[in-house]
Specification:
The chain is of the alpha/beta class. It contains 6 helices and 8 strands, in the order βαβαβαβββαβαβα. Helix 2 packs parallel to helix 3, helix 4 crosses helix 5 and helix 5 runs parallel beside helix 6. About 10% of the residues have low confidence.
């Protein structure tokens, strides 16, 4: 199921204890090292008028923390007992995201490292990774497989159709560890739909929420193609 709308509004419509996992890549809102520099065009941060980016990535730390805590409260309500959360983030916003999710009474299980396999930008040491925070609702269900480490090497998508598009193979690996066959995965910040494509390929069910109509339609087409012509519902 693909839903085009505001994540908090749409999450509140879904029935409680209805999903096995939340796997998502929220807007990091972390393009600068200092809060006062956010939105400056010469910083790493893209301005809100940048047509190739997306406006929700321009939030302050306070706005980001509020949104993520409110979202996590809904995630906990929607997760089945023992369900899992995997949430991407970078080093700047890691502590803010971890605190926001943990304060919703989800259990902080650990941290995965996505090794992008080659260098990006960096002032001293070149950036090569992102974090994936792992939480569970109470004691997490047992893993489906035990042959995956907490450092996952996978090249990023270059020049993808979404600014922060994640590799389908990476998302499939995450799903294969935590979500049982025919389990239901929720991505409340769906973007271009990589989580959904991976879910369908692995025989899992998928619920995706995306505010931007352009990316919502993009995700629908990708998932529709993966389903082999069975239209994804809105």
């Amino acid at each position: 199921m693909i839903i085009c709308g505001d994540t908090l509004t749409e999450l509140r419509k879904l029935p409680e204890e209805s999903v096995d996992a939340v796997i998502t890549d929220p807007p990091y809102s972390s393009g600068t090292r200092k809060e006062g520099a956010k939105g400056l065009r010469k910083s790493m941060k893209r301005g809100t008028d940048d047509g190739v980016w997306f406006s929700s990535d321009s939030m302050t730390v306070l706005g980001f923390s509020w949104l993520m805590r409110e979202s996590a409260i809904e995630w906990k309500r929607l997760l089945k007992p023992g369900g899992h959360v995997l949430c991407f983030i970078d080093w700047r916003m890691y502590p803010h995201l971890a605190g926001a999710i943990e304060s919703s009474d989800l259990r902080h299980v650990g941290v995965l490292v996505w090794d992008k396999t080659y260098f990006g930008m960096g002032a001293y040491f070149r950036n090569q990774h992102e974090f994936i925070l792992h939480f569970s609702k109470g004691r997490g269900t047992d893993p489906i497989r035990r042959d995956v480490g907490n450092v996952l090497a996978c090249p990023p998508i270059r020049n993808g159709s979404h600014p922060t598009e994640k590799p389908v193979d990476l998302m499939a690996t995450l799903i294969s560890v935590l979500v049982p066959p025919r389990g239901i995965i929720l991505d409340p910040f769906m973007g271009g739909g990589s989580t959904g494509v991976a879910a369908i390929r692995l025989g899992r069910e998928f619920i995706g929420i995306e505010l931007n109509e352009k990316y919502c339609e993009m995700a629908r087409k990708r998932i529709y193609g993966t389903l082999g012509g069975v239209e994804a519902t809105t």
